[in-house]
Amino acid sequence: MRVTTSAPADADAVESFWRSLRYFSIYRLSIALLFLVAALVFGDTVSLGTQDAWLFDRVAGVYLLLAIVFLAALLRRPRRFNLQLSVQVAVDIAALTLMMYASGGQKSGIAILLLVVVAGAALVGQGRMTLFYAALASVAMLLEESWRALTRDADPADFVRTGIISIAFFGTAIIARLLAQRLVANETLARERGRQLNDQLRISERIIRDMDGGVLVVEGDGRLRLFNPRAEVLLDARLSNGDELATLSRGLADRYRVWSAQPVETVEMLRQEGGRLLRVRYLPSVEFAGHALIYLEDMERVQSQAQQMKLAALGRLTANMAHEIRNPLAAISHAAELLAEEDTDPLHQRLAGIIHDNTRRLNRLVTEVLELGRRDRAQPETLRWRTFLSGFLEELALHDASAGRRVRVGQGDVELCFDRGHLYRVLWNLLGNALRHASAADGAVRLEARTGAMGSGVELHIIDDGPGVDEALRNQVFEPFFTTHGAGTGLGLYIARELCEASGAHLELLDEEPGAHFCITAEGLACR
User: Fold this and answer.
1) Burial of 284 (0-12, 13-18, 19+ CB in 10 A)
2) Under the phi-then-psi rule, with left for phi > 0, alpha for psi from -120 to 50, and beta for the rest, what region is 236?
3) Where do the DSSP E strands lie in 334-439?
4) What are the pLDDT digits (tens) for 194-219?
5) What CATH number has the domain spanning 214-301?
């Protein structure tokens, strides 16, 4: 992978460059302080300022002062990176050259510090400025040596040594620059890989947290190391890192202890003390640095999903069969009517009536079964509740004259996203049941529209004053072909719930007495 680097902007250099420049400034401050202390304390005992002590002391003092200013500027206002670096390097070269001249030239060893300055500038700086710093140091060395040759006795070989040092400046600058490029590329790559790793970790944590199954990471001694929220739900316990598995589930701990003796991938069923059936999958700890990975899956949910798939397949099959049955059923009904009209025998009239009544009942059953095939063709739209309800109640009153006085509509008005035909069918089933079981009093059935508890949805309530639903039957009212009415098909509430789900809504029977209380929870936003 190739990573290209660019010079940091003057106004906003990356933090790594500013950090390197701060270290460079601390080094400058240390050298300036060392020179000043050495000159003032040790005096002639060191070979510093031997040629011009006054110049050396003054330059060392000014150099220390400027080093403090540079460091303070970096800490207070880190702006214009290249300009600050260039000024600092220029001051370094000027000060060290003057102190080298005051100490007798390159023989004093200060020229080595110029080499450090060039190398440091090449590592900290960017672009072609590194060669400029090397050239600036070389020019300063040549000027110092030339001035020495003009004003003092100088050995011609000193120019050769100066040339060698100047070549070393350029070599050091180039090598340091190449190293700096490699370091910057590696740092950029490491930073990018770190971001990718953090993103991957966040994604993995989100996936694990939202998994339908529980995940447990267990240490070799049976202590919990990691888990996801679903595991707490399946184990019905409040988990925390470091808990012993035995305190959470005695059965799971015993099975884990047995499995640990031969750690191979194993899948088994486990019945919890609360009655929940779990599918437990163990993964060998060798693959996870001494930790075992345990997956928990709620088999009741799996079985429920399988049951839903079976019911969906059965519904499609039944709908197809019902469609095929409808035509011969209509022919039978029509033939029975013709027989009743042509044959005046009372016995034949009675038999024809029985045939006609049963064909009507079968036709009603076929019609309701066909409704199941229409649940996947929902076309939700934004409906105004009171506007829709006014037309619906007018049609309901044509079939049941008492509906006009027995059904009372609340004052609330909402907008909901629902398929118009599905909502009509759902209300027809629910109000039909409510009117059948409610009393004959005015307002025996109530329709109320409310805003959802979280403020993001709407709730439609259908409440009657009848005897309600027996507690033993509450879990069966939405099952297909379950009915307590002799002439019913047992598909009304089942179809109502299926049609609600097709429009993204939810139908439930609330635990409120007296009477039955059904609630439809639907989206309250405009349909997209």
Assistant:
1) middle
2) left
3) 381-384, 407-409, 415-418
4) 888 888 878 877 877 777 788 888 88
5) 3.30.450.20
Classified as helix, coil or strand, 520 is strand
pLDDT of residue 128: 66
Confidence of residue 6 (pLDDT cuts 50, 70, 90): very low
| Listed residue (208, 111, 213) closest to 161, CA to CA | 111
Tell me the three state secondary structure of residue 244. strand
Neighbour tally for 161: CB within 10 Å: 16
The token pair at 394 is 């007018």
Residues with Cβ within 8 Å of 352's Cβ and at least 6 positions away in sequence, in order, are 336, 337, 339, 340, 343
Helix (H, G, I), strand (E, B) or coil at 154: coil
Residue 13's pLDDT band, with cuts at 50, 70 and 90, is very low
The model carries a pTM of: 0.41
Distance CA 14, CA 213 (A): 44
CA distance 276 to 109: 83
Choose the weakest-confidence range: 93-107, 382-396, 471-485.
Answer: 471-485
Q: Of how many residues is the chain composed?
A: 528
Count the helix, strand and coil residues of the chain and give each as a percent rounded to the nearest 5. Answer: 60, 15, 25
Contact 433, 469 (CB under 8 A): no
Phi, psi of 430 (to 5 degrees): -65, -45
210-216 long-range contacts, CB within 8 A, separation 24+:
212/297, 212/298, 212/301, 213/295, 213/296, 213/297, 213/298, 214/295, 214/296, 214/297, 215/293, 215/294, 215/295, 215/296, 216/245, 216/293, 216/294, 216/295, 216/296
* More confident of the two residues 373 and 322: 322
Give residue 2's pLDDT.
Answer: 37
Q: What does CATH list as the number for 377-523?
A: 3.30.565.10
Start-to-end C-alpha separation, the chain: 44
Q: Which residues on adjacent β-strands are paired with residue 262?
A: none
pLDDT in tens, 286-340: 555 567 888 888 877 776 677 667 666 766 666 666 666 767 777 777 777 777 7
Cβ count within 10 A of residue 424: 17
Nearest Cα to Cα of residue 17 among 26, 25, 8: 8
Whole-angstrom distance, CA of residue 20 vs CA of residue 183: 12
Look over the chain and give the mean of its residue pLDDT values, rounded to a whole number. Answer: 77
What DSSP state is assigned to residue 476?
T
Closest CA to 276 of 245, 236, 229, 224: 236
Residue type, 359: T
SS (H, E, C) 68-94: HHHHHHHHHCCCCHHHHHHHHHHHHHH
pLDDT of residue 382 exceeding 60, the answer is yes
**What's the pLDDT at 372?**
58
Kind plus residue range of the DSSP H or E element containing 517: strand 517-523
104-107: Cβ within 8 A, 24+ apart:
104/47, 104/50, 104/51, 105/51, 105/144, 105/145, 105/148, 105/154, 105/158, 106/141, 106/145, 106/158, 106/161, 106/162, 106/165
